[in-house]
Amino acid sequence: MLTVLGIEKLKAKEKSYKVSDGNGLSLLVEPSGGKLWRFRFKFGGKEKMLSLGSFPSVSLADARGKRDEAQKLLANGINPSDQKRQEKLVAEVAGRNTFLAVAEEQIQRLKDQKLAHATIAKNTWLLMELASPLHQRPISQIKPVEILVILQKHEKAGMRETARRLRGAIGSVFRLAIATLRAETDPTYSLRDALSAPVVTHRAAITDEKQLGMLMVNLDQSDGWPTLRHAIQFLALTMVRPGEVRHMRRNEVIWPASTWRIPGERMKMRKPHDVPLSKQALAILREVWPLTIDDNLVFPSIRSIRRPLSENAFNSVLRRLGYGSEEHCAHGFRSSASTILNERGYDDDVIEVALAHEEPNKVRRAYNRAAYWPERIKLMQDWADLLDQFKLPTFQARSS
């Protein structure tokens, strides 16, 4: 029988050679110096061999233990080699059934559905970063308490909305697992009332005409990077979402029709949206057009014409101008336009279509989008003219 000291003293030779430990267990010493455990046995009248690993990763005691386990299988009429292959297959399947594996599939499904980049990025952050403690757990074995601990960690840090979104994202992974027969239940369902409701905060927006006019004056006079200034002015004129301006491309502008066609994959409701361009909006585009080429971004980052402005770029301009987060934000320009135009008596249906808000009635929605184009052209030009009017000294001098 072999000893640990004897194994350590075995030297490599020109050819491989075998040293027996008895009862079918042997050590194969290779010319490279590797020492491999082998168990030889007969099954069905044929001689077979089972690899048990290498020394010293598998110790002498471990090798003997594996040999004894294999002999027990043989006594029960089971081929140890078949058993090993089956265990390997089970391990591989288990590896594909971890929370991480299903979460990666869920993110890929979001990409295949061509959801907005921001949506995919948010879900990737939630599932790959915040849910990382679950990654290596078999998804069918995860208990509600494991998820609750993660959610409460973020809730206690004051991130109530993040905790709520994280529960939803984790739940989507379990629903995929259930649909693909890798889990039977969704443990997030029992946690639906476990978190405190987030405090709803509306996006800050200036809705007073004089104050909005002063903001536009301050933007005109700001001495920051010109492209960024033009981008935020364009945002105010077009009533779209900040991300739609940041990712705007030159080939989306239809100059003869004075129209900007935003592709559906960038829209919140996943449907293309045409924006009539006022004279003022077109003037801004003519200013920035020579700064980029081909089908690149219209308002690129200062670092590269192929990279968009950062998500916080617009708000950083507002903060530098002295407008706090509780006073006005980039998304607030939409609320400013909606509030002021409604107060001035413009058709609320036209305003809603201009804002790309989804009409719940399908027939009415289709009619609105087809019927209101001339009204939208007028609305956008009127809005641009109003912003110019709000900036005039005579308007600013009016008594409240």
Structure description:
The protein is an alpha+beta fold and 400 residues long. It has 3 domains: 4-82, 2-Layer Sandwich (Double Stranded RNA Binding Domain), CATH 3.30.160.390; 99-191, DNA polymerase, domain 1 (Orthogonal Bundle); 209-396, hpI Integrase, Chain A. 50% of the residues lie in helices and 10% in strands. It contains 17 helices and 7 strands. The protein has helices at residues 4-9, 60-75, 80-96, 99-112, 117-130, 144-156, 160-179, 209-221, 226-238, 242-246, 279-288, 313-320, 332-343, 348-354, 362-371, 373-391, 393-396, and strands at 17-22, 25-29, 35-43, 46-55, 253-254, 259-262, 273-276. Strands 1-2-3-4 form a 4-stranded antiparallel sheet, covered by helices on one side. The protein has a 3-stranded antiparallel sheet with strand order 5-6-7. Helix 6 (144-156) packs antiparallel against helix 7 (160-179) and helix 8 (209-221) crosses helix 16.
Summarize the structure.
By secondary structure, this protein is α+β, with helices and mostly antiparallel strands.
| Total DSSP E strands | 7
Structural class: alpha+beta
Radius of gyration: 33 Å
Give me the number of helical elements. 17
- In this structure, how is the largest beta sheet organized? 4 strands, antiparallel
Instruction: Quote the CATH topology of the largest domain.
Output: hpI Integrase, Chain A
| Helix-strand sequence | HEEEEHHHHHHHHHEEEHHHHHHH
Q: What descriptors fit this protein?
A:
Double Stranded RNA Binding Domain, 50% helix, DNA polymerase, domain 1, hpI Integrase, Chain A, 4-stranded antiparallel β-sheet, 3-stranded antiparallel β-sheet, alpha+beta, 3 domains, 400 residues
